Fold this protein.
Amino acid sequence: MSKFEQYNITLKDIVDETRVFEFDLDEAYFKKIDSPEVQKGLVKAKVSVQKKLTCYDLQFVVDGTIYIPCNRCLDDMAQIIHHKENLQVKFGETFSEEDEIVIVPESDGGINIAWFLYEFIALSIPIKHIHPTGECNVNMVSKLKKHIARQKTDEDDDDDNSLDDEDDDLIPNDTQTDPRWDALQNLTDNN
């Protein structure tokens, strides 16, 4: 028995109706996938399968919460995800993926969607994911403050001890800027 056998969908049994498959993706699922981006979570996946004239239309909806490392303090944080995706599946000689069409061997008669579910979850992760203000690991934030200096702006007040949510405002203490960049910065400041 394959570790992902429960995610098999037998397509050749679907003729005129639309079938709906539901999956609960929990820590056991993420451990089986063994990918570095997401290690834990609880996600509900709903897959609607409808036979079209020449292919099968699979509509995926994934909703839930995953736990990923915060970009700032590296502690796990809860990330709510919601993603919808369509996939066209056709029968052919061998397995292949071409754009949004997946070809599965006709002899198999179906498709295993375990990895597709994971890819759709990974696609829904924002590029920048950090804890809400005040929820980062206090020890890590204090270590960060020792090694970075905030770029001063007119809106900042001197007694603010929290890191901004914008990591782009953080620059290293010992960074010296190239005078050519300073000249370019003056051009944008004057406009």
In short: Strands lie at 8-10, 18-25, 40-51, 56-69, 76-92, 96-98, 101-105, 110-112, 148-150, 170-172.
